[in-house]
Amino acid sequence: MASLGQIIFWSIISIIIILAGAIVLIIGFGISAFSMPEVNVDYNASSESLRCEAPRWFPQPTVIWASQIDQGANFSEFSNTSFELNSENVTMKVVSMLYNVTINNTYSCMIENDIAKATGDIKVTDSEIKRRSHLQLLHSKASVCASSFFVISWVLLPLSPYLMLK
Question: How far apart are the first and last CA of the chain?
Answer without folding.
Answer: 8
